[in-house]
Amino acid sequence: MKWLNSLFNDQNRVTTVLVLSDILLINLAFILAYWVRYDLQLFRAVDPAFNVPYQVYLPFVAVFTLLLIFVYKQQGSYKQRRQLSWIDEFYA
Q1: pLDDT by residue (tens digit) across 18-61?
Q2: What pLDDT shows up at residue 12?
Q3: Does residue 84 contact residue 91 with C-beta atoms inside 8 Å?
Q4: What is the DSSP string of 50-63?
Q5: Cβ distance 68 to 26 under 8 Å?
Q6: Distance between CA 54 and CA 34 in Å, rounded?
Q7: pTM for the whole thing?
Q8: How many whole angstroms separate alpha carbon 48 and alpha carbon 57?
Q9: Which distant-in-sequence residues (6+ apart) come within 8 Å of 26 by Cβ?
Q10: 27-65: buried (b, 16+ CB within 10 Å) or exposed (e) per residue?
């Protein structure tokens, strides 16, 4: 049960929230882009041959989401840094 306790410590909880929020925002960005392009057709009308339902893009969205989360992890976006005071942040 130690692994379960370690999963819910403060540092892992923050990382979990960051990853879940990234997943949510990546998917919201795809939904918004689809809506603007295919439903609103703001910039140009979509040729009916290319007007496909959103479900067609779901495999791509899933792969792209996983790829972005992996890249963010590799770049250290989810590492917890020590807290800096606002004065330290200001002068850094």
Answers
A1: 999 999 999 999 999 999 999 998 888 889 888 899 999 999 99
A2: 82
A3: no
A4: T---GGGGHHHHHH
A5: yes
A6: 7
A7: 0.75
A8: 16
A9: 61, 64, 65, 68
A10: eeebeeeeeeeeeeeeeeeeeeeeeeeeeebeeebeeeb
Q: Domain residue spans in the chain?
A: 2-91
Is 1's pLDDT higher than 60? Answer: no
Only one residue has tokens 């479900």, namely 55
Q: What span, in angstroms and rounded, lies between the C-alpha atoms of 89 and 91?
A: 6
Q: Residue 36: its pLDDT value, please?
A: 93
Residue 76, Cβ density class (10 Å: 0-12 exposed, 13-18 middle, ≥19 buried) = exposed
